[in-house]
């Protein structure tokens, strides 16, 4: 008859050996769960679990996985210190509002639209279009509240104003691409205008001109009253094509540009943290 070799063992649910139960190199098994254990000693003795059905899981002594499932739709994330956990995914809600000017002129749009939907949006995260042309916040319209859009110039009979709005945002990082062809070297032209609810925006700015290319990165922030920015990583093929500045006007944080040459095209990619 073959010899049966048995390890130290326990059939008790969740039973784990203590360091005093094992010698270095010795194995123990919990037969209820099918989990193996051994002792390690890197200057401090500890019990290590071995197997495909562990009660806990730590990788390389630094990365610890959760021991219970999260909710449906949650994502696994780290706290930056080696502990993983489940968190809610980013979410947002989009709504579109359409207003047709029926008579006279109109600058203020609020309340029920053509479809009896009541205007509501997150300031700084709206897109406003007049007859299909996108308007610039602060220049073409102002956002005095989250329920009103006020144009800087009159809309007339038959004009259609469309507001594409994010009505709610959670844990959202947003990326935006813009392009502007500036024909003059006028100082402090508006390159970007966003509501002060956008507390921090990172930009990659690229300018192209017949004389060359100039690119840089910018971090723009505000405290509700003043805007502050830092510019870094400048690279250009010939010479600098622009200078930047910032301001807050009518509740909008603006990145301003002064081109060195006429007929310069500016392309930006923005990452907005809300």
Provide an overview of this structure.
The protein is an all-beta fold. It is built from no helices and 23 strands. The mean pLDDT is 87.
Key terms:
mainly beta; Immunoglobulin-like; 3 domains; 5-stranded antiparallel sheet; 4-stranded mixed sheet
Radius of gyration over all CA atoms, rounded: 30 Å
- Biggest beta sheet attributes: 5 strands, antiparallel
Uncertain segments are none
Number of helices: 0
- CATH class of the largest domain reads Mainly Beta
| Terminal CA distance | 73 Å
Secondary structure blueprint with pairings:
Blueprint: E1 8-10, E2 27-30, E3 35-41, E4 45-50, E5 58-59, E6 63-64, E7 75-78, E8 84-87, E9 91-100, E10 105-110, E11 127-130, E12 133-134, E13 141-145, E14 148-156, E15 160-170, E16 173-182, E17 189-195, E18 200-209, E19 212-222, E20 227-236, E21 242-249, E22 252-259, E23 264-273
Parallel strand pairs: 1-2
Antiparallel strand pairs: 2-3, 3-4, 5-6, 7-8, 9-15, 10-14, 11-12, 11-15, 13-14, 16-23, 17-22, 18-19, 18-23, 19-20, 21-22
């Amino acid at each position: 008859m073959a010899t049966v070799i048995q390890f130290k063992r326990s059939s008790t649910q969740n039973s784990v050996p203590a360091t005093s139960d094992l010698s270095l190199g010795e194995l123990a098994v919990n037969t209820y769960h099918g989990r193996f254990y051994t002792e390690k000693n890197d200057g401090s003795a500890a019990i290590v679990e071995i197997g495909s059905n562990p009660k806990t899981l730590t990788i390389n002594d630094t990365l610890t996985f959760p021991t219970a499932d999260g909710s449906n739709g949650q994502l696994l994330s780290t706290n930056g210190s080696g502990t993983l956990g489940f968190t809610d995914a980013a979410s947002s809600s989009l709504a579109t509002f359409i207003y047709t000017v029926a008579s006279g002129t109109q600058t203020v749009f609020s309340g029920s639209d053509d479809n009896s939907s009541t205007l509501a949006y997150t300031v700084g995260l709206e897109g406003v279009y007049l007859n299909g042309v996108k308007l610039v916040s602060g220049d073409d319209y102002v956002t005095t509240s989250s329920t009103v859009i006020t144009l800087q110039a009159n809309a007339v009979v038959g004009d259609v104003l469309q507001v594409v709005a994010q009505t709610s945002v959670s844990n959202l990082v947003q990326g935006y691409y813009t392009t502007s062809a500036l024909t003059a070297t006028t100082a402090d032209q508006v390159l970007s205008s966003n509501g002060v609810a956008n507390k921090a925006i990172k930009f990659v700015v690229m300018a192209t001109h017949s004389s060359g290319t100039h690119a840089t990165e910018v971090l723009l922030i505000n405290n509700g009253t003043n805007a502050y920015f830092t510019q870094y990583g400048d690279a250009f093929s010939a010479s600098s094509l622009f200078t930047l500045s910032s301001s807050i006007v009518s509740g909008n944080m603006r990145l301003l540009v002064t081109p060195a040459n006429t007929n310069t095209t500016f392309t930006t990619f923005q990452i907005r943290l809300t």
